[in-house]
Design a protein that fits this description.
Layout: E1 2-7, E2 10-19, E3 22-36, E4 43-57, E5 69-72, H1 78-90, H2 97-107
Parallel strand pairs: 4-5
Antiparallel strand pairs: 1-2, 2-3, 3-4
The structure holds zinc ion.
The site of zinc ion has 7 residues, from helix 2.
């Protein structure tokens, strides 16, 4: 089943398939997420575009899956998955274009 859902600038579009051991999502995350630069602390928009494979399982879950990122949740909620992706992008090592430019200047 095709699904598309956006949350805070980040959109998932792809296939959602319910199987016996969970709900499988395969598709693309795309959008712009507002993040904070770790250098100058100013907010900027980080473009995101990546292929993703998620598997949503009921808690508690003890298995692992090499191919899919596991999400444990009581009730399947695509928004909640996007929320946690936005969160992890924000917690990433984000450097704004200005500071990136400065870093290159220093190297030469
Ligand atoms: Zn910066």
């Amino acid at each position: 089943m095709k699904r598309e859902e956006c949350f805070q600038g980040l959109c998932f579009s792809g296939e959602v398939e319910k199987r016996r051991d969970g709900i499988y999502l395969e598709g693309k995350l795309k959008g712009k997420v507002e993040v904070e630069c770790i250098r100058c602390l100013s907010p900027f928009l980080q473009p995101v575009e990546e292929e993703v494979k998620f598997k949503v399982v009921k808690t508690p879950y003890s298995g692992t899956d090499g191919e899919f990122d596991i999400f444990e949740m009581e009730k399947f909620d695509l928004k909640e998955i996007l929320r946690s992706e936005v969160e992890s992008i924000r917690n990433d090592y984000n450097i704004c274009p200005n500071c990136q430019g400065r870093e290159i200047d220093l190297e030469f």
